[in-house]
């Protein structure tokens, strides 16, 4: 283990430098192979297989049988690298694969996700991360259980964590399935299991330590894969190599093109596929501003309560480095998120702007139907064109696409070489795998540490605890893959639910645990139960066809849950006695960044 | 004055400063995350770098503000920590 311990940490910059150089060399090699006539399919397979093999190697090198290493990577991850790992943990299949597609089809309204998923880090930094790090816990329920005391509080936190993370992880495995299906030319249902295998290779042997170092590697792959096509496309369209500050004109042109083609509903909708009906640059429809703000708010509070993110900040050496690594995380995340609207805008322009050779809207139907990329995606059922008004011309409302393929299809749409498509597939795979790793680990750790070790068998010895953790990891992964293969909801939908569940049940108990020393056990339990039950009940009501109240649909049910949680927690706390002196002192200690952690190092 | 109460006093003043900083950061956060989106319609009438300003703020402006806000907070918090002797050597 010397390789991955002391020596590794001393040389970490060099190790990842070599890795990045190696990856770029691999991309160049693939480009050369493509020029030599190697088929597109082979290149796609090589990209996905090569990157997964690297992650698996890192996972194997980081194997461990130590509790501290398994749960919190030995608490020695430097801030910058923890920032990268958090960014990969955070940017899921939804961010990488589906977000730009959501902006493409949902227009302005979907950008609430972008605000929510970045602004949430301000909450993480100011309300949560430094204090939870000072506490010295292994898992989020560990914090709830110790701060409020008692197994019931711990158990409630475990339930909320499992529901939120499980909803999320099925979406990630769904994303790996989608990408594997396209890149490796295998059926979706097989792709899902293939994805799970890759995920488990990264996390099973080394727990948090293995996941940390693979996530850093995955971040490097995913950010390169996201930026390269955008930069390329922007260069071709004449917006320069850094499009972020120059695509303003494209955004303005969009409004004119939308007016020219008309944003109409399709004559005959096709199930599972979307047409463009919402404007790109501004709010649209009833309660648009309110809907935007509520979605952004619930995503932000969800960010600050999702355990797989919070537990990343348990791995840093100190409180200060926990804070610093939140700042790095947001910077690394920001790189992708402020690119997503640019990607959506430029891709949309590729298809809509008649002055570009790649435009398809307004072209003759037969011409479009013969394009290779249309046929490729049509053959897997992710895209359709239908001449519903029979005029022989493809109208905007006759072009149907699954929103979550926009990013994957962009290189082909823009006519980029296939090596870029392969790169994007590898990046999407990295994004989905890294998040799935973090989530599966969060669930398995909560169940093994909080449920098994703390509640069922406190005398269990280390090796048993770590074996239980791994068995749970495999079992939960298999269950998630099984559910993902049923394809219940789109990638972005399931992700939003996870945030709503986490915000409903955990946000106020976590925040008030730090910021309100009067908050007591009864209040926290009431807050978790009321929030979670109210949120779930409201989700059930809306999902089964109930009319959303004030525009709060199934993506925003967390608002209802959070309101219930806050009221219940405050009222019940005030009606019951204040927590004892020991707990109050514990809260005081949490607020001071120096000194020993509240919980013993090995607990 | 006993050592115990001095520590409590220092802690209280430390916490007060930390809390004030947090409130300031959260107020700025509310502005960029929650107020700006309600103004997008009117901001879109202004052009910035060729973008409709409202769209720009949501696609980039607020994001940049969040990044700056966190770095600013950490810089301030570090100096508060150091002032009270709570800064950690790394």
TrEMBL record, chain A:
Cell compartments where the protein resides: Membrane
Keyword Kinase: no
Annotated transmembrane regions: 12-32, 38-58, 79-104, 110-132, 152-171, 183-204, 216-234, 292-314, 326-346, 418-447, 467-488, 494-516, 523-543, 555-576
Highest taxon of the lineage: Bacteria
Membrane-topology descriptor: Multi-pass membrane protein
UniProt record similarity statement: Belongs to the sodium:solute symporter (SSF) (TC 2.A.21) family.
Name of the protein in its database record: Cation acetate symporter
Organism, as annotated: Chelativorans salis
Organism classification: Bacteria, Pseudomonadati, Pseudomonadota, Alphaproteobacteria, Hyphomicrobiales
TrEMBL record, chain B:
Swiss-Prot/TrEMBL keywords: Membrane, Transmembrane, Transmembrane helix
Domain of life, per lineage: Bacteria
NCBIfam families (UniProt xref): Na_symport_sm
Organism: Chelativorans salis
A Pfam family assignment: DUF4212
Protein name per its UniProtKB record: DUF4212 domain-containing protein
Residue spans crossing the bilayer: 21-41, 53-72
Keyword Nucleotide-binding: no
InterPro entries per record: Na_symporter_ssu (IPR019886)
All copies of domain Sodium symporter small subunit, residue ranges: 12-86
Keyword match Transmembrane helix: yes
Source taxonomy: Bacteria, Pseudomonadati, Pseudomonadota, Alphaproteobacteria, Hyphomicrobiales
């Amino acid at each position: 283990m010397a390789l991955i311990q002391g020596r590794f940490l001393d040389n970490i910059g060099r190790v990842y430098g070599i890795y990045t150089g190696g990856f770029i060399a691999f991309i160049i090699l693939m480009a050369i192979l493509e020029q030599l006539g190697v088929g597109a399919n082979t290149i796609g397979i090589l990209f996905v297989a090569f990157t997964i093999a690297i992650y698996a190697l890192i996972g194997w090198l980081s194997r461990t049988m130590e509790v501290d290493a398994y749960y919190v990577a030995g608490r020695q991850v430097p801030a910058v690298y923890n920032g990268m790992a958090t960014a990969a943990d955070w940017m899921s299949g939804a961010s990488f694969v589906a977000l730009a597609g959501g902006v493409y089809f949902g227009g302005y309204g979907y950008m609430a996700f972008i605000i929510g998923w970045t602004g949430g880090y301000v909450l993480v930094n100011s309300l949560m991360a430094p204090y939870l790090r000072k506490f010295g816990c292994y898992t989020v329920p560990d914090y709830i259980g110790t701060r409020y005391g008692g197994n019931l509080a711990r158990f409630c936190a475990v339930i909320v964590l499992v529901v939120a993370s499980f909803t999320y992880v099925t979406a990630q495995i769904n994303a790996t399935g989608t990408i594997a299906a396209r890149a490796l030319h295998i059926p979706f249902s097989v792709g899902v299991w293939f994805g799970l295998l890759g995920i488990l290779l990264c996390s099973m042997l080394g727990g948090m330590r293995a996941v940390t170092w693979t996530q850093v590697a995955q971040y490097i792959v995913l950010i390169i894969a996201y930026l390269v096509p955008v930069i390329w496309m922007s260069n071709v369209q004449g917006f320069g190599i850094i499009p972020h500050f120059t695509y303003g004109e494209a955004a303005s042109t969009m409004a004119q093109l939308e007016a020219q083609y008309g944003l109409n509903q399709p004559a005959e909708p096709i199930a599972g596929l979307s047409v463009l009906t919402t404007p790109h640059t501004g709010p649209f429809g009833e309660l648009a501003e309110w809907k935007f703000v509520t979605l952004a708010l619930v995503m932000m509070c969800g960010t600050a309560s999702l355990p797989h993110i919070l537990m990343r900040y348990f791995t840093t050496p100190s409180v200060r480095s926990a804070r610093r690594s939140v700042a790095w995380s947001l910077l690394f995340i920001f790189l992708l998120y402020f690119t997503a609207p640019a990607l959506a805008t430029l891709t949309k322009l590729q298809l809509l702007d008649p002055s570009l050779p790649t435009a398809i809207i307004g072209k003759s139907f037969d011409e479009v139907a013969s394009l290779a990329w249309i046929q490729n995606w049509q053959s897997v059922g992710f895209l359709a064109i239908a001449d519903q008004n029979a005029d022989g011309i493809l109208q905007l409302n006759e072009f149907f696409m699954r929103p979550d393929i926009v990013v994957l299809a962009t290189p082909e749409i823009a006519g980029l070489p296939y090596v870029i498509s392969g790169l994007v597939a590898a990046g999407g795979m990295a994004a989905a795998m890294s998040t799935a790793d973090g989530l599966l680990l969060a669930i398995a750790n909560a169940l093994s540490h909080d449920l098994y070790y703390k509640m069922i068998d406190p005398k269990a010895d280390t090796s048993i605890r770590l074996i239980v953790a791994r068995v749970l990891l495999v079992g939960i992964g298999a269950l998630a893959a099984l559910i993902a293969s049923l394809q219940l909801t789109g990638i972005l939908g399931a992700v939003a639910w996870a945030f709503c569940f986490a915000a409903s049940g955990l946000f106020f108990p976590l925040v008030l645990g730090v910021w309100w020393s009067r908050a007591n056990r009864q209040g926290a339990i009431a807050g978790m139960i009321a929030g979670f039950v109210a949120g779930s009940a409201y989700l059930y009501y809306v999902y089964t066809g109930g009319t959303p109240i004030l525009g709060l649909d199934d993506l925003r049910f967390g608002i209802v849950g959070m309101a219930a949680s806050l009221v219940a927690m405050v009222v019940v706390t005030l009606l019951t006695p204040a927590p004892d002196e020991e707990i109050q002192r514990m809260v005081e200690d949490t607020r001071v960044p120096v000194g020993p952690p509240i919980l013993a190092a090995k607990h | 004055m006993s050592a115990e109460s001095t520590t409590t006093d220092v802690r209280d003043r430390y916490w007060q400063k930390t809390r004030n900083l947090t409130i300031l950061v959260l107020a700025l956060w509310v502005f960029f995350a929650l107020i700006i989106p309600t103004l997008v319609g009117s901001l879109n009438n202004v052009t910035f770098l060729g973008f409709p300003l409202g769209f720009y703020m949501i696609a980039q402006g607020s994001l940049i503000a969040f990044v700056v806000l966190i770095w600013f907070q950490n810089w301030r918090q570090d100096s508060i920590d150091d002032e009270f002797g709570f800064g950690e050597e790394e």
